[in-house]
Design goal:
CATH topology of the largest domain: Alpha-Beta Plaits
Shape: elongated
Order of helices and strands: HHHEHEEEEHHE
Number of helices: 6
Distance between the termini: 41 Å
Strand content: 15-25%
CATH class of the largest domain: Alpha Beta
Number of strands: 6
Radius of gyration: 25 Å
């Protein structure tokens, strides 16, 4: 809005007073309208483009990952959230490499709370740290609190980029199942 109001002033400063030019006022108004249209387009278009880009990144995880279910889980307001990812393999890795895989995963993501094998060594369970789902912003006079699952989502994207590709090369992954654990309640409600 400020930019749209500043555009005519910038135009005036650039080209000087109109000196009776009949096109000067329509040009200034047109410039302001174009700036308003561009700002409105950016305010509406950029968030939609970012959301579409994030959905594409989630879809690229592949391996049967259910994007819709994950987004539903992510939208639930939790006091604390813990990401649990289950990587299902078609065949268990070589028994002599099971501990090596766990050490490699812990090396790729040292902030994981736990990594373990389940289901006769065909499922690798990765458990993230418990993350706060509220944050604050403001200044000295007013502070507001808002809900965010950004840290939990960042954990998933790190697993998808650092863990899934090398493990898939080692032994084909047939499923990526995600769950988010934690008490579901409005973030501003007392526990």
């Amino acid at each position: 809005m400020v930019l749209a109001l500043a555009m005519p002033l910038a135009f005036f400063l650039q080209f000087g007073p109109s000196d009776g030019d009949p096109w000067f006022l329509p040009t200034m108004v047109g410039t302001a309208l174009v700036a308003l249209a561009l700002m409105f387009g950016a305010a509406v278009g950029v968030p939609h483009a970012m959301a579409a880009w994030r959905r594409v990144r989630l879809a690229r995880i592949g391996h049967g990952f259910d994007v819709t279910r994950y987004l539903d889980l992510l939208a639930q307001q939790r006091r604390l959230a813990r990401l649990v990812v289950r990587l299902r393999f078609r065949h268990p890795p070589d028994p002599t490499r099971l501990e090596t895989v766990l050490h490699a995963v812990r090396g790729w993501l040292p902030e994981l709370d736990d990594a373990r094998w389940e289901a006769r060594n065909t499922t690798l369970v990765l458990i993230g740290l418990e993350r706060r789902t509220t944050d604050t912003y403001g200044n000295y006079t007013s502070v507001s609190q808002f809900f965010t699952n950004g840290p939990t989502h960042s954990d998933l994207m790190e697993i998808a980029s650092k863990v899934v590709p090398p493990l898939d090369r080692m032994a084909p992954i047939i499923g990526v199942d995600v769950d988010i654990e934690g008490m579901v309640c409005p973030f501003d409600e007392e526990a």
